[in-house]
Amino acid sequence: MTAHQTIPDDTWHARLRTLAICLLLLLLATDVVLISLHILWFEDDWVWDIEADNGYGETFQYLKWSAAVLLLLILAWRRRAAIYAVWAAVFLYLLIDDSQSLHEAMGERLVPLLRLRDVEEIYHRNFEYFFLRGEDFGELIVALAVATAIALALYLFWPDQAAQRERHVTKWLIGWVLLFAFFAVGVDMLHIMAWEIYPPALDVLTVIEEGGEMVCASLLVGWLALEAACT
Fold it and tell me: Which ranges of the chain would DSSP assign to H, the alpha helix?
C-alpha cells in the first residue's frame, strides 16, 4: 500500500474517532439535562421523571441500549468474533428488561413459587431496619440468574490468546457490568430500604440510581463507538 493510500485511511479513522468522542459528550450532556429537568419538574409532569417507564429519560435509555446492540453486531461482523454477538445479546436483554419491566414481573412471579413472603417475614424479624419485600428477593434471584447466564456464556465464548483485542473489550465490558450493577442492583436495594429507614432520602437515591444508570449507558455507547471507529 502506498503512502497516498494510507493517509486518507488514517484520516478517515481519526474523523470517526472524533465523531465518537462528540457522540459521547452529546450523550452525557443529554443525561445532565434530563436529570436536571427531573429534579425541577418530575412532580409536575411524569414524562420528566427519569424513573417513569416510557418517560423521556427511560426512552433515552432504550435508544442507548439499541445503539449498543447495533455497535456490537457491527463489531461481530467486522472482526468475525462471536464474543461481540454474546455481548449484543446481553444488551438486547437489558433493552427488553428496561422497556418491559421484565425483572420486576419475574420477581413478583417468584414470590408464590418460592414462598418468598415467608422469607420476607423471617428477614424482617432479624433485620427490621433494612426493609425488603418478597418481590425484592425475587428480583435479586432473577439478577443472580442473569449474572450466572452471562458468566456461562462468557466462559463458553471467551476469546483465545490470539484475540487480544477481544479479550480487552470483554474485560472492559465486565468492569462496565459491575459498575452498572452497583447502581441497578445495589443502589436500587438501598432505594427500597429507604421507604422504611429514611423516606426523605428517596428523591436523592432516585437521582443516584437512575442517573448512574444513564451515565453508565452513555459511557458504554461512547466507548463502543470509539471501538468501532478503530476497526
Answer: 3-41, 56-79, 82-100, 102-113, 116-126, 134-156, 164-181, 188-197, 202-229
pLDDT (tens digit per residue) in 35-93: 999 999 988 888 999 999 889 999 999 999 999 999 999 999 999 999 999 999 999 99
Are 64 and 27 in contact by the 8 Å Cβ rule? The answer is yes
DSSP secondary structure, 29-59, as one string:
HHHHHHHHHHHHHTTT-GGG-TTSTTSHHHH
pTM: 0.89
Stated length of the chain: 231
CB 150 within 8 A of CB 88: no
Do residues 73 and 88 lie in contact, with contact meaning Cβ atoms separated by under 8 Å? yes
Cell 443529554, located at residue: 30
Residue 99: φ, ψ to 5°: -80, -25
